[in-house]
Amino acid sequence: MEYENMEDPEQRRKEMHRFYDLFLPAQKKYGLTASCRTSLFHDSSIRIWQGEGKDKQLIIKVENASEARCYALAAEDLRHWMSKKKEQNIKMLKVC
């Protein structure tokens, strides 16, 4: 049985690689964790947190019907979050 909403596996693979190429270094640098969920019958979702335990904060939440688009949006949001973090660090260095 084939499903109507099946995505191009090559596009899905490329978007996953782009996401993880960005996420894995950021994970080490900023102490991030991620949860990625997919289903044929529900929207895909990616959530990214910073910190551990009760100090853990949700920094990115993406939901989309397309798994490939979900990874692309999460990568874009993570890039934006990282650039804001970098700007904050530069401002902190200038103050010190």
Quick summary of this structure?
With 96 residues, this protein is of the alpha+beta class.
CATH-defined architecture: 2-Layer Sandwich
CATH topology: Double Stranded RNA Binding Domain
Overall spatial form: elongated
Mean pLDDT: 89
Q: What are the segments in which pLDDT stays under 50 over at least 5 consecutive residues? A: none
Strand content: 15-25%
Can you walk through the features of this model?
This protein has one domain (9-95): 2-Layer Sandwich (Double Stranded RNA Binding Domain), CATH 3.30.160. It is 53% helix and 22% strand. The protein contains two helices and three strands, in the order αβββα. A three-stranded antiparallel beta sheet has the order 1-2-3. Helix 1 (9-30) packs parallel to helix 2 (67-95). The protein is elongated, with a radius of gyration of 16 Å.
Helix/strand layout:
Blueprint (H helix, E strand, L loop, with lengths): L8 H22 L1 E6 L6 E7 L6 E8 L2 H29 L1
Antiparallel strand pairs: 1-2, 2-3
Helix pairs in contact: 1-2
Keywords:
3-stranded antiparallel sheet; 53% helix; alpha+beta; 96 residues; elongated
